[in-house]
């Protein structure tokens, strides 16, 4: 069974001086302003495709990781995932790198099993798979601590 989620963006004007609004249609969580400046320079209270990708990737990774840990008999108490998405205009506009930074509290798991599960989640998360065209997706996963 497939589940569809939708968002919509209305853009006005050209790329550099124009602006738009992205609306989360399915959840009805809100409408968010977007501009080229927010994407390529300073956010200034606006979002960007890369920030939205970071949110999706951090959420998807956390869900995948929690499931892998639970299935292996190590239910996590906490998973804190930060996704950093780099947007570059060098050589054409592109997402040049994504860094997943993960800190988790998982009682009774060895460092080795933790690292294996973390990597499995990175490779198996549907958003990671969707972003496979990104040149570099790195993972820094550690037991304990915070981001």
TrEMBL record:
GO BP term, pick one: response to oxidative stress
SUPFAM superfamilies in the cross-refs: OsmC-like
Signal sequence, renumbered to the chain: none
GO MF term set: peroxidase activity
Database matches in Pfam families: OsmC
NCBIfam families: osmo_induc_OsmC
Protein name per Swiss-Prot or TrEMBL: Osmotically inducible protein OsmC
